[in-house]
Batch of 2 targets.
Target 1
Amino acid sequence: MAADMRLPAPRKRSTNLPKEHGKHLVAPGDVITTDSGFMRGHGTYMDDEKLVASVAGVVERVNKLICVRPLKTRFNGEVGDVVVGRITEVQQKRWKVETNSRLDSVLLLSSVNLPGGELRRRSSEDELAMREYLQEGDLISAEVQSVFADGALSLHTRSLKYGKLGQGVLVQVSPSLIKRRKTHFHNLTCGASIILGNNGYVWIYPTPAEQNEEAGGFVTNTEPVPLSDREVISRLRNCILALSVHKMLLYDTSILYCYESAFHHQIKDILKPEIMEEIIEETRRRILEQEG
Amino acid sequence: MRFRGKVRGFTPSDDLRLDGRSCEDYRYVEVETDVVSNTSGSARVKLGHTDILVGIKAEIGRPKLDRPDKGCLEFFVDCSANATPEFEGRGGEELGTEIANALYRVYDNERSVDLKSLCITPMEHCWILYIDVLLLQCDGNLFDAISLAIKAALFSTKIPKVQMMEDEEGTTEIELSDDPFDCVRLNTENVPCIVTLCKIGQRHVVDATLQEKACSVASLLVSVTSKGTITCVRKIGGGSLDPESIYEMIEVRPPPLNWTQILASTDHATGLAYLGSCGGTAGIAATSQGHWSWLWSSLDSACPLWHLWQSGTSLKSDEPTRLGAAPPSAIIPSEWWCRFVPLVAADLHTWRGRLFQDSQLQEAVSFGI
């Protein structure tokens, strides 16, 4: 039994961070500009003649429009984003999915793949059998099809790579830390697979042995996962938490570098502050080398 | 948000949790004392994301009527609305009272905090320690963190020295010394710490996070001092616990059993009785015509472990897990204590209602050997 007790230590600021050129960071109450020719966008308000920021984030300027994009925010979905969500309600002909956004997203019955064919007409029997496919508490991966007028997202799982998620680990990070890439489904070389949802939900799961295309998205594998896979998944989970604590962007390369730096530590030690800093320093260095 | 926890593949041979810890590992803890300036003692504990702040104020008051020569501890637990959205408004009151009641039970023990030292004048004045617990952030394992914080706060508590002055009219006045550093510190060696064991699948885990708590059916709360004395055992949660698994949970690290043999005196039924201690837990096992019965143990009388043996279940003497590998011998343990638990045994009915005090049992021991 190990119990590690210590006195709290002040958090260290990383001194060798690369200077961010051209990024105008503001805090709530900071004056952005006093020029009155700009239109004000999200995250700003007018105070006398000055344009003041109301959230902490980065100032973005598009021609005459100034808005502030906050660093810590709820997920604002756009068409084509991959999300990982949890079913909260089963309603008539649709499911409500929680995706870390301001409103629960909607997954219509007509947007899922039902066994029996792609273009089958949805009958009333399908409606009554909705709970057999997805229940409250299930995790799904889906793509954003459209955005409703009130800002709610409409999801679809109309591809075989989306659907109900089986055994794995969910890690919740801030949505702004997920880097937008071409693909969000990765089979990492360390022995696990990962889905980086744009909404900040990261799903780590053991790589399926063979890709069974016929099963569709609703059959989950409940075989016990072997210990070696579970160790890889736990280590990845701790690495992702370490990266998110240090506010580093999450994408497959950064996660892989972090995993390799953390490989010779014990899995539970990765979350200790001093070891976390060491691992993140090395990861940062390797990423800079690779980019520069 | 509530989600159903499904447990699969948590086999006894693997010892790996979600964050890589083994079943008996704690997350790293940060402890800080003397954080609040206008209290007699304070502490802050961070266990993972669980954040607890404890402040202790010492006030002079009247002692309780049934304990005229002792001070007392008063607990108040405040679940701040910042901890989780469920604590908004009055949502946290229920949890707060549940925790406060558990704390009263845990610390209500002569041996944990020396309450006699808090007495100024018997029946008139005593120190009352008001212990306020504030939950700043909730990430599972509240009881452990709270007990750590209380122990640290009691350690840092400074109680001013008082002097009783008699006036000419006969009224007594209490005088506190002017020097702020002239104070008494409490002895916190025997203050218990709470260990919460959550049952998940077939195993039990220590220091469960919120996710692990959602998957567990029931938990066992054991408060134990550094010497191994158990002051309180409590079961929380809606699920049921097998008595076998409770025994397994408590014996997380089984120390060797020392047994002392006493002979039954004439006013008891036939048979031999063995008094043994395991750390600070003492127990009496008796045999009558080769059938063993575990009559009594110094755990809390409401502990379900006791109920297992209440019905007179036979216990074979060659079961090493229960009686220990060593045969009964005349080893007298250095520290043991007894508490009264009503004894019910089918064949040893005359043991019922016997009160064992320290002195009585010592006599019996010296008489028998």
Note: Chain A touches chain B at residues 1-8, 86, 88, 98, 137, 167, 169, 222, 224-225, 227, 230-231, 234-235, 237-238, 266-268, 270-272 (CB under 8 Å).
Target 2
Amino acid sequence: MLIVFFLPHLLYFSSYWSKILKMKKDNKPDNTAFTQQRLPAWQPVLSVGIVLPLFFIIGLAFIGIGIGLLITSNNIQEFEEEYTGIGDNSNCYICANNATANCKCTLNFTIAQPIQGSVFMYYGLTNYYQNHQKYLSSRDDQQLAGETYYLKNPSQSCKPYQMDINNNPIAPCGSIANSFFNDAFALYYNNQGFLDEVKLDGSAIAWWTDHNVKFSNPSQTGSNLSQIFEGTVKPINWSKPVYNLDVNNPDNNGFINEDFLVWMRTAALPDFRKLYRRISGNYSSFMPSGNYTLEITYNYPVKDLPGKKKVIFSTVSWMGGKNQFLGIAYLVFGSLCFVMGFILLIVYAKYQNVEDNDD
Amino acid sequence: MNAFLVVYLCILISKALVNTVLKYVWQSNPNRDEPWYNQKTESERQRNTFLKAFTDFLAFMVLFNYIIPVSMYVTVEMQKFLGSYFITWDEEMFDDELGEGALVNTSDLNEELGQVEYVFTDKTGTLTENNMQFIECCIDGHVYVPHAICNGQIMPGTTGIDMIDSSPVEEGMESEELFFRALCLCHTVQVKEEETIDGIKKGLQQCSKSSSSSVYISSSPDEVALVEGMKRLGFTYLRLKDSYMEIQNREDSIERFELMEVLSFDSVRRRMSVIVRSHTGDYYLFCKGADSSIFPRVIKGKVEQVRARVEHNAVEGLRTLCVAYKMLKKDEYESVCRQLNSAKLALHDREKKLAEAYDEIEQDLILLGATAVEDRLQEKAADTIESLHKAGMKVWVLTGDKMETAAATCYASRLFHRNTQILELTTKRTEEQSLHDVLFELSRTVHQHSGSLSRDSISGLSQDMQDYGLIIDGATLSSVMKPTEDGSSGNYKEIFLEICRNCSAVLCCRMAPLQKAQIVKLIKASKEHPITLAIGDGANDVSMILEAHVGIGIMGKEGRQAARNSDYAIPKFKHLKKMLLVHGHYYYIRIAELVQYFFYKNVCFIFPQFLYQFFCGFSQQPLYDTAYLTLYNISFTSLPILLYSLIEQHVGMDILKKDPYLYMDISKNCLLRWRTFIYWTFLGVFDALVFFFGAYFLFDNTTLTSNGQMFGNWTFGTLVFTVLVFTVTLKLALDTHYWTWINHFVIWGSLLFYVVFSLLWGGIIWPFLNYQRMYYVFMQMLSSGPAWLGIILLITVSLLPDVVKKVICRQLWPTTAEKIQNAEKQLKPDGFSEFTPLSSLHSSNYRNSDRRNQPQRRSDQLSKKLMYTHWGNHDYCTFSSLSVSDSKSNSSSGLETSV
């Protein structure tokens, strides 16, 4: 690739090399535009004349885009509920302090305005360093791609979660997999005292390419997943083996479990959110206002980090979720361009006057 | 550049140190050091803390090492190597007569060509052509001028002599013939019968084509000129055969002289002699040499008349030689022979003994007369010197010739102007006064007008200053340099340097080769550390060529020693102008941008990584993928800057040549000052902050896709990297003033290459990699609208401050180059004339100094010849040639006429 890119230049220069060699006979240098440095050239000058209109145009365009972005962003509805369980009056206080598995707690919240459009449900963690160098590298992409050799022989990079105490290979190996987020949520709409379950859809929450190309289960004809994974052990912190992650949907098991895939796409920053479910069923395009109950299966410890856990409900637009930054940045920068334009205009006018007086 | 590098090394180390310290501060909380989700292995836990800290420090160093632009060195070397071809390729520096163009022996110094402050030039062969023409001879005070001048109209017959003075009497006739014979015999010229194709001899060929096809060859062009001259006066030296020298005299009969001894020339004696035996059996000793070495040995002859003529000729810039003879009796000859033989056979101090023998033999001579040979000024030498002066360079002429000859040449080559006040520092003066007094007097004179202004003003060209020229000779120079016993030599040197600093032109005559180097060294070591350039053609210039920062050899007639020992070799002196004003200027601005840009782009590159450490627990997590880290300097951003540094032209070539003042725009390394360096660094830091925090806020707890999916850390890094590559490349695009198709190709090509590479890199599961972290990251990013908008915004934001700064600087404090760019734009029909102010382009002091330094010249003659100058009482006028461009620059005070 590199060579292909350099090739035209090499050829270009080598043609001159050959001419240099020829020059031994006829010393006279070539009279070409290149050798004489007289190639035809466009010589733009960055003068006020060009830049001024450019500033105003950019300013206008950016302000326009900024307004559009802000409006879009403001139309997006977003709810955030923390359920870490810090503080005595918190519903999940007991679960947070008792290390019992599958501790349940509930969270009640009210949606004041009905939400139009499809709603996405995220879980969020704070102060959680998924981007730590050691953590990030503690995975084996070859194992996750379903290569049978690496299933039984995970890479060294997975340490300390490469093999268990009995020296059995861990599948999936590594810190990332081991720390897989294992809280579960169920959502109910409080319809006049009657709890109506809001259906949650867990499909297509991970990248399509992750699900279909990058990750795959090891294949072995005529055997089911549990047979394939025989000889490996589940990660130490997991309660269920990898081939049994989703009891309801047998196709959503193994390395291609979507929740697992979402977790494996490590977040860039220590405060992050990850897509959990999309709201489907009756509420897929409209969530009425009213009271909701979120039932949490509390497993994931964050208290010591110290971190927080959140659930977020958000609609999305073409520009994704709620993000004021981009709109504001466009607006501010657009106006700045305008101001700059005016300053330049003044400078320009003044300079002009000085020149006139001069001559 | 190296100082900048040290700064960056300090930045690198401090960055790594800061991060290491912060890491341990941050990790003091055990939940941060080892959270439950990210446990350490047993061996990691047990590692010594100090050792861990040290490896962490090293890891940070590795992570940030890109800030030291290693690739810069490679690129700089390539730029220098490839860039030097433009000098070799330059057609304007090609000499048809020699059949050779400029040669580049080292490519390390290209940019120094743009920084030259002192030019030391040889005279003979450098300023002049070293193509000698016999002009006249003076025999016993009668002047003979061969009226047929070599080029073209050679009169047939052998009677071409004009008697200027009274007609010679009978005895005059005799000494006249003796004189001619002496010149025909006293030389070491060889005759080559067949035609040669050697370019150097072509000129001679033309001169001698009237008679035979023979060519005279000698190591000294003067000798050839003399023998040629004699031929035109009727005495033709035919050949040396069996130690008999054959001369064809005016009656076309052949005279034969047996050559007995040759007392060869050396530069200490400054003369040579031959001993011949005529057919009558008489022994003659003929001696020819510099006037100063002949006159003291003469006992008879019309010394006064000859001396007057010699001095007259010297003032006119002619090279003079005196001829004397003596008759030897047979026994005298034999004793001479013995003397010489014993000296030649001496085992110890042979040279010294030979010199003594020569000294003894060459005594009691009878003066015959003197010759005058003209060495013409090289084509456009005066124009070149004037341009160099205007470009703020100080030109020193260092020559071995006598003062009057050299001074005349200096006037002719416009090194000295009519209004130049000449300061003399010669033996003549120091004989009258002590060196101390002379020096102090001169420095007083110099300071009278300038005062303390001198150092700041633009190299003596500012309008308040009188133009000074200094003449110093070798003997005085050595006494200036010589440490005296009372230790005041440093003082002398300082005073001398101070005087020199205030002189725009200095002439050093009667210089020994080593003294030339000494002078160069003196200036080089002075406290401003100016860049010096030495130019010369002969072996005697080699020492100064080697001593100066930039050595330039002229491919002259005195062999190729100078050309071989130099950094650059050019065919003619006039090519120096283009070399410095165009090539030097270009190389300098190119390399300056190259260096600064490299620092800038690596700051942009690495600073986000540094910032990222604050958000990933100081864990040395790289922000970018390995492929991006590796290829950033190698292929994404390398070619645009390399090609920029090869073909950028901020101002047209013709303008640079026409307007030597532009050279001062870049003097004193002004594009690589700390201020610019800091500006670039801060720009880099600002851009890096924009990249990183722009992406940070864009990614802050939100999804960027319309399907609700989240991006990971690699998308974050790729977004920053994409903005980075585009910004850095577009920044270069903004700096480019000369957009050829190559620039378009590499700039847009590089960006395209980045995109194509990223698509490919993320588009395939690469089987040889054991991680697939970049898989589809780039495509996913491009499928997101906000990512696009973010990229566009961040690129614009990071480029804007630089644009604003450029525009405001251009408007308020434009450099001369920028004014010219504006003017160029204006003159084009589709230019933005309504915006660019129509103003004079030179700042006022430029204009004034321009007028002031243009003496009123009579520019109607087009002859190339150096004409007569009456020098001595500072009242002279020059009828010298003026090329067309000269007369133009004479009339142009600004640039309006010359563009």
Note: The longest strand of chain A covers residues 103-111.
